[in-house]
Amino acid sequence: MKLRPLSPLSLLSLPLALALSACGTLEKLPKVSMPKLPDMKVKVPFVGTDSTAPSDDPSLPFQLNQPLSAGHTLEIAAYAGQISPSKMFVGRVMVDESGLVDLGKYGTVKLGGLRLHEAVLPLESAFRRQRGQSLINVQVIRVEDLPLLSIRGAVKQPGIIQFVEGATPASVLRYAGGRTGDPTATAVYVTRNGQRAFHVNYLNSEIPLEPGDIVTFSDSL
Q1: What is the full per-residue pLDDT of the chain (221 aa) written as tens digits?
Q2: Distance CA 13, CA 68 (A)
Q3: What's this model's pTM, rounded to 2 decimal places?
Q4: 3-state secondary structure the chain
Q5: Contact 115, 95 (CB under 8 A)
Q6: Do 79 and 97 contact (CB within 8 A), yes or no?
Q7: Distances (CA, A) of 123 to 103, 114, 149, 200
Q8: Distance, CA of 120 to CA of 193 (rounded, Å)
Q9: How would you classify residue 107: left for phi > 0, otherwise alpha for psi between -120 and 50, otherwise beta?
Q10: In sequence order, which residues have a C-beta less than 8 Å from that of residue 55 and are 6 or more positions away?
């Protein structure tokens, strides 16, 4: 039997015929169902302050000369160390019916019945117990809506006073009864966010203060 050679037209149509044949074969293959992937929900952790005060805590009147009582809310910041201070706690806490304040992982401390300047030491002690570090700075920024400043060092009446806009070390000194110690000393330290800044002369009007600052007057420099 003698084979006849394929014509050029037949050679060109051969790939098309093979493709159509393959399509028909694919249509006959069983369909494989793909498993449905579960919905992936990414949970973003909440990033905020260390506040433990309830969001609906009551707004109560507060004056500097009155003791802290149930419902009073304090905004505080605590830092460990001085050269490279690390933040321990920044947020709002509330005095409960038992006079206790919840400091989160640092436990509780009783502040009810204490005046503000008396409350600083128990706060520092509470953070120190958990951290095991001797140098702890606690800044009392506000009680309720009242902004505050702390005055320490070589002054007659150290304590906590109300912050007013535009305050400087020179302008707040009279609220602490004036200076003590070396009459020629002029240096002052301003602690903010755990950082202690040194200033040569407290009379310098370009030392702006902010709520929560700790102003410490030197007794010798």
Answers
A1: 454 555 554 544 545 444 445 445 444 545 555 555 444 333 333 334 799 998 888 889 999 999 999 999 999 999 998 788 999 999 999 999 999 999 999 999 999 999 999 999 999 999 998 777 678 999 999 999 999 999 999 999 999 999 999 999 999 999 999 999 898 999 999 999 999 999 999 999 999 999 999 999 999 99
A2: 96
A3: 0.76
A4: CCCCCCCHHHHHHHHHHHHHHHHHHHHCCCCCCCCCCCCCCCCCCCCCCCCCCCCCCCCCCCCCCCCCCCCCEEEEEEEECCCCCEEEEEEEEEECCCCEEECHHHCEEECCCCCHHHHHHHHHHHHHHHHCCCCEEEEEEEECCEEEEEEEECECCCEEEECCCCCCHHHHHHHHCCECCCCCCCCEEEEECCEEEEECCCCCCCCCCCCCCEEEECCCC
A5: no
A6: no
A7: 9, 12, 16, 30
A8: 16
A9: left
A10: none
